[in-house]
Amino acid sequence: EAGVTQSPTHLIKTRGQQATLRCSPISGHTSVYWYQQALGLGLQFLLWYDEGEERNRGNFPPRFSGRQFPNYSSELNVNALELEDSALYLCASQQGYNEQFFGPGTRLTVL
Amino acid sequence: AQKVTQAQTEISVVEKEDVTLDCVYETRDTTYYLFWYKQPPSGELVFLIRRNSFDEQNEISGRYSWNFQKSTSSFNFTITASQVVDSAVYFCALSEADFTGTASKLTFGTGTRLQVTL
Q: Measured on CA atoms in the order A40, B21, B66, B15, is the torsion positive or negative?
């Protein structure tokens, strides 16, 4: 069974640009979570999608947004990129009461 | 608010030593879930264990064991006879239950970097 996949692996952008990160959950999982792992800030919860709806968001500005598609894959969009957005972005999927399984991450570098 | 504290930033041991990683949590919820994840240099978080707040049984899985004590709000992780392959960053995490009782977003500790040398 395939695990959580994320694309791209690496993404380099400049300040002010927009970044789009993608995540495909494990087959049968309906919930997708996004986390940011920035240097010195640890792992922070960004967004949670379940059954196509945004269920919760962390303490991040509105320029961080996303969506979940009917096939449960998800997209994270970051607008007006700032230098401090440089981080590893991890996606996780979950089904029901179970634990979250993580993808390999997308490393975003903002120059 | 939820909080997870991993006071040990970095631990170095020699192979075959036993090592315990500490985790202390804070939550006002009566129903919650605790997790340990391993993050090797590749960056991907690997799930190790989940424990719910009603299950205080300790667990052993091979060289890994976990000690959950609600009285001290701790969920410690012990690796017996450590190996070089155990070198990684280990994260303890806490999840509150949503209105359905399902584990939701994770609050992570800052992680403990374990270095196992020959």
A: positive
